Amino acid sequence: MLQCTINGKELEVKPGTTIIEAMKLIAHEDIAHYCWHPGLPVAGVCRLCVVEIEGNPRLQIACNTQITDGMKITNQSEKVKEAVKWGLDFHLINHPLDCPICDQAGECELQNQYMKFGKYDSEMAEPKVKKHKVVDLGPRVVLDSERCILCSRCVRFTDEVTKTHELGIFNRGDRSEIGTFNGRPLDNKYSLNTVDICPVGALTSKDFRFRQRVWFLKEHQTICTGCSTGCNVKVSYNKEGLFRVKPVYNEQVNGYWMCDEGRDVYKYVNKPARLLDAWMTTAGRGEWLHPLTAAKKVGEFLRAPENKGKSVALVLTGQHTLEEYEALISFFKNEVGTDRIFHWVNNPESMNDFDGLLIRGDKNPNTKGLLETLERHGIKTEWKELIDGLSTGAIRTVVVAGPENQAVYPDFKAKVLELSKAQKLVWLTACKNEELERLQGDVTLIPLKTYIEKDGTFVNYAGLRQTVKKGLTVVANAMSLVEVAEAFKGVDVRPEEAPFKVGVGRVNNEATLQRGSL
Amino acid sequence: MFKLSEEGLNYVKSEMARYEQKQSAIIRALYRAQDENGGWVSPEVIQHLSEVMDIPASHIEEVATFYTMFNKQPVGKYHIQVCCTLSCAMAGGRELTDLMMKEAGCSKLGETSPDGLFTFSKVECLGSCGTAPMLQINREPYIENLDEQKAIQLIRDLRAKAGK
Ligand code: SF4
Ligand code: SF4
Ligand code: FES
Ligand code: FES
Fold first, then answer.
1. What is the extent of the structural domain holding B36?
2. pLDDT at residue A514 is higher than 70
3. Residue A141: strand, helix, or coil
4. Which end of chain A is more exposed for a tag (fewer CB within 10 A), N or C?
């Protein structure tokens, strides 16, 4: 171990530690920097991370200097502040300063550092160098070359993390620009990470561009439900719903990154995709009901002596939490008296695929948790038994806890068709679906909460248990499977609400949309 | 589609073996390919080198665009690079460029004359300030201590040499 002093703090670090690592990750000191990123190799090009080392007449860059024993380091001297100030001034020579229309504004490192180290008076008489704006880099990313400070983080990302090498810095001096060879698209499954690590507004996400000012957004940390990797993420939301997903560092699971597909997962949480109330057909007539009323009616039916028993089947997907599986399976085993509980596998062929970085073929956050729970309850079934049971009439009632993320269930339509052979079909689902709406006969649809709206545990591919906490409520009446199980028992559960409700601040949302038909 | 000649390919391979990192051979390879491609580096050239050297095309493009010795546009048979940095500029490099361009029939820097023979560029100091003004044609030895007469004669000689 090496001894060193950083801004007066005594520190012990491992040999090989750089000054910036010690400052940021160990001493938690503030240090200006653009090009250094803990998940990427060192470039040392922005020259903003300068520090003063005792006995060294020149300032050194913290990101590319390793600590030696007894080193005394500071970045609080006037000399350092002056250097950062001038460094920033150089970064801004050709910067367009279009903050008012820049998506990064509010979370931009140029703005942040300038508030601390600004020189405030420009001394530039020369016109700014003009570069390409609104460059369509690829299916998900847009580049504004004038805003780029050439930190090379994005280039190092495509070189070192995805190893797809799309990006490069072309030309030289103040004409240097980020780009791709011969206009090839930046098209890899992780491209949006470049937008996250870009310290300025040069790279922006096509999905998020111009949709919200970041200071109108709150953040909630959760787990991505896009696949069985279970990347740690945070969602940005406000009263209008969710707007984007970004990765949160977790060494064990996803490091600093997440995939592009996972960024789309938030879309099904928002109101337009959701089932808002329960739909129940009785004696050929359908009606909208409060979900609790509908669930209690279904519960009464399931518990009735003439209906209970092995003629009832439960279908589960790997999309819900451990707690929910436990509650629902216990109810069906103990109170309905059936062990006909089936696992709906969405893509059996690609279930074990892995791209070597993060993306797994199992597009469910909790397949492992479901299998565990089924095993603990001694349940072993084959999908074929369900189909046979339906055609022989041995199975008459089917309750499905349908997938939240229908986009990753290519067999959704086929399964709806198969299961609609049941005399009574109860479909618990967070999102609406045309196939379900089209169903005839004795059908009940009950709206579920999504992963953002409830507490629970997911078990990822490696068996790691990760918890999600409820952050906001998008559909006020929706229930979790735990609540559904209670309601099935006849309990008057009041769906617990998350601290934040989407839509409450804007009375005009649903009502205004419906006014035409009222 | 551009392809290096057999000989060119061997040259690039041997250059790659010469250095610790094959990236170091990019400049050599680009020079060779530029020569074989009529004086400029087209996207096809970069694509081909990327395959031959097994280096991402974006990395080769970075080098090709960084150095001005690699032409990203087609050039004439004679690419005339006139030094216009301080010493040469003071000794009339810029005026000589205009003069020669007029003689050669080029209206703009970087544009090739209608007969396909001449393209002019103004370049930074070529390290021969003592013999200013000076220029370089393609990758040939320098032509130094220019004056108006010498410059015009130079264009005429080149034209005669090309048989036009
Ligand atoms: S686009 Fe962003 S990440 Fe890439 S070099 Fe420019 S500033 Fe850095
Ligand atoms: S790799 Fe999987 S868990 Fe991670 S962000 Fe992508 S979809 Fe989500
Ligand atoms: S962070 Fe050290 S030079 Fe950029
Ligand atoms: S200034 Fe022309 S060779 Fe140096």
1. 6-66
2. no
3. strand
4. C
Mean pLDDT of chain A: 93
Number of CB pairs, chain A paired with chain B, less than 8 A apart:
35
Q: Does A173 touch chain B (CB under 8 A)?
A: no
Q: Which of A169, A172, A181 sits opposite B57 (nearest CB)?
A: A181
Whether residue A512 has pLDDT greater than 70: no
In short, whether A141's Cβ falls inside 6 Å of ligand 2 is no
Q: Are residues B42 and B116 in the same domain?
A: no
Percent of chain A predicted with pLDDT > 90: 90
Instruction: Name the strand (E) or helix (H) holding B43.
Output: helix B43-53
Q: A179 to chain B, minimum CA–CA distance in Å?
A: 9
- Predicted local distance difference test score (pLDDT) of residue A2: 95
CB–CB contact B65 A165 (8 Å): no
Give B58→chain A minimum CA distance, Å. Answer: 5
pLDDT of A508: 43
Query: Candidates 1.10.268.10, 3.30.70.20, 3.40.50.150, 2.60.120.10; correct CATH number of A129-210?
Result: 3.30.70.20
**Residue B132 CA, closest ligand 4 atom number:** 2
Closest residue of chain B to A165, computed from CA coordinates: B56
Whether the CB of B126 sits within 6 Å of ligand 4:
yes
Distances (CA, A) of B77 to B69, B97, B114, B154: 15, 17, 12, 14
Reported as a single tens digit per residue, the pLDDT across A121-161 is: 878 889 999 999 999 999 999 999 999 999 999 999 999 99
Residue A506: the pLDDT is 47
B97, B128, B131, B146: which to mutate for ligand 4, most atoms within 8 A of CB? B128
pLDDT at A301 over 50: yes
A67-71 contact pairs (CB < 8 A, 24+): A67/A2, A67/A4, A67/A13, A67/A17, A67/A18, A67/A19, A67/A22, A68/A2, A68/A4, A69/A2, A69/A3, A69/A4, A70/A2, A70/A3, A70/A4, A71/A2, A71/A4, A71/A5, A71/A19
Residue A517 pLDDT grade (very low, low, confident, very high; cuts 50, 70, 90): very low
Whether the predicted pLDDT of A494 surpasses 90: no
Predicted model pTM = 0.91
Last residue of a domain, one of B66, B87, B111: B66
Choose which CATH entry (3.40.50.740, 3.10.290.10, 3.30.390.50, 3.20.20.70) describes domain A272-501: 3.40.50.740
Q: Smallest CA–CA separation between B18 and chain A, in Å?
A: 24
Within 6 Å (CB) of ligand 1, which residues are found?
A 148-154, 178, 197-200, 202-203
The confidence band for A516, taking pLDDT boundaries of 50, 70 and 90, is very low
DSSP string for residues in A168-183: EEES-GGG-EEEEGGG
Per the CB < 8 A criterion, the answer to whether B136 and B142 are in contact is yes
